[in-house]
Amino acid sequence: MTAQKEALRRFAGYFTRSEKLLWALSVSFILVSFCIFDRESYMTLCASLIGVTSLIFNAKGNPFGQLLAVVFSLLYGGISYTFAYYGEMITYLGMTMPMAVFALIAWLRNPYNGNRAEVRVNAISRREAGWMCLGAAAVTAVFYFVLAYFRTANLLPSTVSVTTSFLAVYLTFRRSPYFALAYAANDLVLIVLWTLASAEDIRYISVVVCFAAFFANDIYGYISWQRMKLRQARA
Q1: Is-contact 73 100, C-beta < 8 A?
Q2: How far apart (Å, rounded) are the C-alpha atoms in residues 208 and 113?
Q3: Using an 8 Å Cβ cutoff, are 101 and 70 in contact?
Q4: DSSP-based three-state secondary structure for 63
Q5: What share of residues in the chain are helix, strand, coil (percent, to 5)?
Q6: Which of 57, 108, 149, 211 is the most exposed place for a label (fewest CB within 10 A)?
Q7: d(CA 173, CA 50)
Q8: Of 15, 197, 171, which Cα lies nearest the Cα of 100?
Q9: Separation between Cα atoms, residue 85 and residue 88, nearest integer Å
Q10: Which tens digit of pLDDT belongs to each residue from 29-45?
Q11: Strand 111-112 vs strand 115-119: parallel, antiparallel, or unpaired?
Q12: How far, rounded to the nearest angstrom, does the alpha carbon of residue 231 sit from its chain's CA centroid?
């Protein structure tokens, strides 16, 4: 019992007060919006709660966040299918989820000073960044025609979402602090997408609130990773 109490005490102290507040507020907004606008799609609620929890772990550089991201991608792919957002479905099931698995492996293989709860922050060169942008452009061009073929709803923002998602998953795999900014950009695109969807079905407002919470967490994640980068460099 003493060991269990000690483990709980260490876990409670793992997150800062501001991180606990950010997570609690995010969860509260998600729950309230679900109760007001949805009250039926429990898969959406589950995905939102798992997603926002993964982000607070990602902000700490903890690989557990990537494991939760795999689960979120599966659930979000199903949600996207319900509104014919085939781009989101294909992107998350065919790209984000597999890359989250690769990122999980990469983060576990690169712990900071042997601490598996914190990944070693990495930096990519300008040359690699250039190749990344070329890859993003190629993926975007291919997906545009694929999504057009499947008559994806709101084609243009759906295509832009592919671009931001590619950049985000690549930077996550490479352990760059900029992955959080790429995900924040993706959050903004998804807020637009699901706002358009909510104009036809009010239930999707809860998804809009979800990605608004994700945006706040991703901005914090970038700040947290910059602090990690400086701390690790000084050590």
Answers
A1: yes
A2: 39
A3: yes
A4: coil
A5: 80, 5, 15
A6: 149
A7: 20
A8: 171
A9: 5
A10: 999 999 998 888 888 89
A11: antiparallel
A12: 24
